[in-house]
Amino acid sequence: MSTKVDILDVRIGARIRIERESRGWSLTDLAERSGVSRAMIHKIERAESSPTAMLLGRLSGAFSLSMSTLMARAEMPEGRLLRKKDQPVWTDPQSGYRRRHVSPRSDMPLDLVHIELPPGAAIPMPASAYAFQRQLIWVLQGTLVFVEGKMRHELEEGDCLELGPPADCEFKNESSHACIYAVAVLKN
Questions:
Q1: Quick one: which of 28, 93, 118, 127 has the fewest CB in 10 Å?
Q2: Mean pLDDT per 10-residue section of the chain, whose length is 188 residues
Q3: Parallel, antiparallel, or unpaired for β 151-156 and 89-91?
Q4: Do 180 and 140 form a contact (C-beta atoms < 8 A)?
């Protein structure tokens, strides 16, 4: 694991602790609200375990934040310009899903995220991770299967999908090539 990933794990853990404590919640409170075990939250907060995308989705949903907002709060200083070399990159230790936060941290009501989903990868996300914002998914390369509740969307390069009402969902790459897509999140 690279030093940059280790530092990011520390920042993510610290941000989760700050969000939890600012609400006056105990580890048990956050565990009950997110469905993530108290022990796992403790390990994430202490940077003893790298959270998966699914766990981050559950935790951000419990805070009424998008995963993008939670990660931006952990990753970046404020400013109008965020050069590519400074854009935080996080890799899911379980699936290899790679997330690069493209937009600068600001009061603008939009976050842009660049995602690379490896062949065969599937990232489930709970409805709570989407309950607080509107999102667009824009496929830049390859194909993406997005399962939204009972609906299955097969997206090809150039396709753009607006997410519907919050539902448990899953991002899937059923092909033998990486899928690259952008997510635009309107913040509240």
A1: 28
A2: 60 90 94 95 92 90 83 74 87 92 81 95 86 87 96 98 91 98 86
A3: unpaired
A4: yes
